[in-house]
Amino acid sequence: MPYRRLPNTDAARLKALRAAFAKGKELPPFKLAYSQVTLNKIHSFLPAFEKAIFESKQAYSNQTQKSKDYLKINKKARLYISHFIQVVNMAIYRGDLPASDRKLFGMTEYENKLPNLNSEHDIIKWGEKLILGESLRASKGLSPVTNPTVALVKVRYEKFLEAYKFQKMLQKNFTRAQEHLINLRKQADELIVSIWNEVEESFKNLSPVQKREKSKLYGLVYVYRKNEIKELKNENLSI
What we know:
The protein is built from seven helices and two strands, in the order E-H-H-H-H-H-H-E-H. By secondary structure, the chain is mainly alpha-helical. It has one domain. The protein has a two-stranded antiparallel ribbon with strand order 1-2. The mean pLDDT is about 95.
């Protein structure tokens, strides 16, 4: 005997709820296979569930669309910070700047390797250090580092910070939308089980085949097991 299969995707949940709701609008209460209380629950819950699904998809779309632009801005900021540090190291190597200037930028005096710039935190940290360090050098009347200047680094750094904060906001929006949707999924599953139980109970006096056919009109889904499918095929071939 086939068994009923509860929906396990949002699309399937919506289909089940909409099918049951359609019957509730189509039939008078005395002909409906589930109670008016349940109909009221569907009427109240379905729009909220549809809205939550839409908002989750929209939040995900916004995040993914903006992430491409964000990655470009991130890469550019990292590049300018890296180049500025390299220019400082080369100037020190040539003797144009004293090695002690590295300490103004938050580096060790005799360390000429590039710092780790892989993470967003690294970019924020070193952007701040370079901008502050060049400000300290300027206050001492020292010649500015050029190609790139700290002004260009600052432009790229501030653009990165703005994009970083915006991306984090989009991530929070998506997380919040997902958490809300997950909570509603549980409610949807409970409501669908309740509807399907009522419908099957209403048709319990019919034959199994009639019961399933009537129930399907309310959105119930029945699945045959593998051995049952084989038996059906064999029966059809023998006819």
